[in-house]
Write a structure and sequence with these properties.
137 residues; alpha+beta; 5 strands; 31% strand
Amino acid sequence: MERSHVSFAPTPENGLCPVRGAVRDQLARWGRGELVDDALLVVSELLGNAFGHGTTPVRLSLALHGRAGHQSLMIQVSDTSPGFDTKAIRAAWTRPSAALSGGGRGLLLVEALSRAWGDRHYRRGHTVWADLPSRIA
């Protein structure tokens, strides 16, 4: 069951600082300060990718979900670009020679911090999402 949801429309011109502050404030309002550090890393990586490789407008969405005695934070970043191949990025992580070349290393952080992450493609864009588990129930 979804507890709360908030959405932002960040712009590359304003940078990540205002968005990071808004995410920090929202998590404090929800009483989930323990998620701030991980959430800020994930938000920064996903927005950085959207600003660097995507097409505006970019949208950030946060949703706090409660399920069977635990909660998780769903972070979603959407833009209007066609997206990327998640399987190819994950496959590159298994090849040591490719691990430090090219891109995708930031998504390795997203993988490490998230219970799950992925992307969804739409006719007019795509969404990259990450589900962060709460450390306290």
